[in-house]
Amino acid sequence: MKYLILVYSNPESWEHPMFVRDPGFLGLTEAERADVVREAEALHAEIVASGELVEGVALADPLTARTARPGDGGVTVTDGPYLETKEQLAGYFVVDCETPARAAEIAARFPDARLTAVEVRPIMTTGGEEM
Amino acid sequence: MTAPPAPAPTSAAVGELLRQLAPQVLGPLARRSARFEDAEDAVQEALLAATVQWPVEGLPDEPRAWLRTVAARRMADQLRSEVASRRREERDAAQTPADAHVTPGPDDESVAADDTLVLLLLCCHPTLTPSSQVALTLRAVGGLTTAEIARAFLVPEATMGQRISRAKQRIQTSGARFALPVGAEAPIRWAAALHVLYLIFSEGSTATSGADLHRPDLTAEAIRLARLVHRLRPDDGEAAGLLALMLLVDARRAARTRADGSLVPLAEQDRALWDGDRIAEGVALLTHALPRATLGPYQMQAAIAAVHAEAPSAEATDWRQVVALYGLLDTVAPSPVVTLNRAVAVAMADGPEAGLALLAPLADDDRLAGHHRLPAVRAHLREMAGDPAGAEADFRTAARLTTSLPEQRYLRGRAAALAPTTTIT
């Protein structure tokens, strides 16, 4: 079963990996920061080696986003992201896991889960079971 | 004097032949070398060489021997270069000549058969995750390439390659011996191997037909592997039962989906579309196995599928028989999913209230929490019981919970059909 992991971030400046620019991360001691970085790297290595990571993508600064939406006389495209919130989507991962619990475990181990939020959503399949 | 060369076979024919030969080539090499990972790599290289050469140059006189020779040579090269580098590093002159590991020995058919089965059991080793077992089985026993397996599971080749290489390393480091298991371990290992074939089959049978013509047909591959196991273990009733189950379920394939990909439930399927040959073969397998072998879950599920297959319509189904078989299955291999199916059968035999009573305890079952199947079945039974409002609510809940697009469309359709009609004035 495939899951989309959405990594939200609230960085002081837009630079990947995003969590290292988060005020929460910057408030940690040097040793604590080193631990967080190490755990993040270990998680990435683990899901690559296990064959669970399908795709991982880092997104550019929301400053570069353009949004298409209904406007006068049709669709208009404006500069900026859809949601004008402090927390922005920083990137996403697609993982293929044995269980929903495992997908949630992976999401919870992203450093961003401690700082902002990481959302995990099942990806729908085009096949179905006989009823 | 040399005979004129035979016409070169098509790529598809070569592919089919290679898939048959793959386990027969890997089996002996893995057994003699006791190095599963390296043997598997060497065989993949030999298969690749054959894929390229045979369609151009024609089949060698003895394709299997050709592959064995090429694979053994690759492996010897590999070992030699490893040994050489180790020697350079350690200045250790006391190494066994690499060829000693891969010298061909006598090979009769029973050894070859055992090799294939040992290979299957290794690929389904309990230290591997189910998805790795499936991937490795398809590659090492099924002879599919990593790219083909990746396409079948809709993941990038790199992801699938990683899964396979991790699985091979695990097998090599687990210290698993290249031998058939004995004693108490044997039935557990066989059950695990059959389960992997079952997983391959289910993955294939839920895939939308015709969505991607280049996607390997996992259903056909699972049936081919189940046939192989059944042929090599004719007295294993569960192997026969699994093959029968696959054939009987696959027989309904053409009736299961409409041209637009929407699902047709069993009760509404056009039974004229069912594959009579598949059904006859499945029933014959089961009829032969049931009185002779130890009864197990696959034979029971196949028996249920056979009752459906032999019924002229949903109403004319022998539901009492289905209820009895699900009751048996729920005793031998209890699971909430079996109870759900049993509840449907009980509702058909004894009325919806009896079915709903069976479902009641499942509401507290953690294994079904958040799953669409319980509300979907309950909706169906509530509809039968004349409770359209309750049924509609359950169909809507189920539609929200499923992660399958065609299931969602089906469940929403059922809910909409039950919604109170608004009178337009």
- Quaternary status of these chains? heterodimer
Annotation, overall tally of beta strands of chain B: 0
How many individual helices of chain A? 4
Order of helices and strands of chain A: EHHEEEEHHE
Number of helices of chain B: 19
Note the main sheet of chain A.
4 strands, antiparallel
CATH class of chain A: Alpha Beta
- Please tell me the total number of domains of chain A: 1
Descriptive overview:
- The complex is a heterodimer of chains A (131) and B (425).
- Chain A has helices at residues 23-26, 30-49, 100-108, 111-115; strands at 2-9, 53-58, 66-71, 74-79, 88-96, 117-122.
- Chain A has 131 residues and is an alpha+beta fold.
- In chain A, strands 2-5-1-6 form a four-stranded antiparallel β-sheet.
- The model of chain A has no long low-confidence stretch (mean pLDDT 92).
- Among the domains of chain B are: 1-88; 318-418, Serine Threonine Protein Phosphatase 5, Tetratricopeptide repeat, CATH 1.25.40.10.
- In chain B, 67% of the residues lie in helices and 0% in strands.
- Chain B has 19 helices and no strands.
- In chain B, helix 2 crosses helix 3, helix 15 (336-350) packs parallel to helix 17 and helix 17 (373-384) packs antiparallel against helix 18 (388-401).
- Chain B is elongated.
Kindly list the characteristics that best describe this protein:
heterodimer, A: 131 residues, alpha+beta, Alpha-Beta Plaits, 4-stranded antiparallel β-sheet, two-stranded antiparallel sheet, 4 helices, flat, B: 425 residues, Serine Threonine Protein Phosphatase 5, Tetratricopeptide repeat, 19 helices, elongated
